[in-house]
Amino acid sequence: QVQFVESGGGLVQPGGSLRLSCAASTSIFRFCAMEWYRQAPGKQRELVALISHQSSSTNYADSVKGRFTISRDNAKNTLYLQMNSLKPEDTAVYYCNAPVGSTCYATSWGQGTQVTVSS
Known about the structure:
By secondary structure, the chain is mainly β. Helices cover 0% and strands 44% of the residues.
């Protein structure tokens, strides 16, 4: 059973930066595309960014394009999300997972990491 553990969240002022990490429990991580999601209070979980297994392709939600950067280190089985120019509307719990149907997809989502953007 694949598991992901997210970390790196916190409280930051508008305009600030955070770097999130997602540690994978499996070495097949390097064969899998990965995604970052977020869920704000009272809202559905939304896809924020995705990256191919060898980092050759990335894609972002329009709301974060130009501010967030997804990356990965397959040697460390770790996924990252660099978040710059943070806005209050970025406040949410952030999760990572592989795409549904992927060998790396975790049916039990991790606890996520809370990001709060506030002055």
